[in-house]
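for the writeup, i need someone to sanity check this before i put it in the appendix. the sequnce is what the collaborator sent (i think, or maybe the updated version? ugh). structure was predicted straight from it, no edits. if anything looks off just tell me and ill rerun, i have time this weekend
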Amino acid sequence: MSNETTIVENKLKPFSTMQLLMFCLGFFGLQFAWQMRLALSGPVTEELGADPLIYGLISLAGPFSGMVVQPIIGALSDRTTSRFGRRRPYLLGGAILASLALWVFPNSKEIVEFFGGAFGVAVAPLAGLVLAGVMIWIIDACVNIAQGPYRALIPDVVPREQHAIANSYLSFAIGLGSVVAAATPPVLSKFFNVTMPIPAQFLMAAIAFTGAMIVTCISIQEKQYIPETKDEEKEEKKSLLDGLKEFLTTSPEIVKICTLQFFTWIGTMCLLLYFTLFVVHNLYGVPDIIAEGVDVSKYEAVRLSGTNFALICMALFNLVCFVVSIPIGFLSTKFGNKYVHAISLLIMAISYCILGFADTKLQVALGIGLAGIGWASILSLPFAMLSEYIKPGSEGSVMGIFNIFIAGPQIVVCTLVAWVINHSIIAKDAGTYYHWEYAFFIGALVLLCASVASLAIKEKKN
């Protein structure tokens, strides 16, 4: 690190508690929107005609965006010279575009029919599903546009001695955003007798995302970035492939951490992607495909109740994550990141088995609550292990590259796991059901592999 960089870093003023809260508010909005997208995209696309495999293929938007968009945007933001700062243009631009897509997504069928009627064009049966699929891809791409630069903003504006607490505030925002997003509709329904339809929930997420990000972008001041030396400028022009190669050859332990993430995120997405559909169909008994002659309307209220219960469970999942995050940090300091992470992943694997065999609300709540322990560890400890190997000044690029090993494994969940479910059919009088619980059994096995992989990592001694 050059002397000039050190001087600039020393000039950064410590953040007050209020400034830290304003800093993490945008991430609260991002997570609020992301929670809605994960929990409710299944029911929306299902009503438009998507079977499990089509839903999985639509959900490829997430891993594709994570593997392609986030590394590119991370590298671009590292060398952006806008007078508005290095990261803020991506934070605000991603939030606004994602919010527009969040509004369009649940209204896709109505929008297609409106424009079809206005221009006198016959609307294809699956036109609404196609538009919804496009919106999912836009949402995921824009969330990744905002997410990578957001984490890289910490070393830009926060003094080094406050980096740990700034990251902890982001974790706080992740937990709180997820809990509030998931809990709001069922709380309004139970205590205020206000039914919030799915389009209204997505609109709420859009407003939260853009509004919160605007507040953060206004409250955080960035300096215009100018490369300090020709060597630094040359360094920044490296291709993504060169960056990936350099990243993986820095240390053998980085390869192990990436292997850990590969298994972890196959298992994690088995829950995040399919849990709501599991609750609606397996627990509440709504057929995936209602048979001809069966009154569809009688399932509407049950479907909404199942969706609300799934949201309550996801709120519990994130609440447990929020509560145990600090104890996990304390235990990892005392016993080592890899051991605490391995045990947390083992607990998560056990919770998946509970969910796979669950046939009551209490059993589902128990399973999802235990899974929150593993989720808390996943959000922090792999990044803590990786942080020992990050080269100063390359945070945006490194986070983008590391995200490849989070997003890439999700392709397996969106294709192979979706294919398994799509070919696991139960025919009943009311219609067709799928074995959504198979996702949890596959996830449990992969998380067990991740737990073993964690133990193979050699951590640096302080």
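DSSP finds 20 helices and three strands in the chain. The chain has one domain: 15-219+232-455.
thx in advance!!
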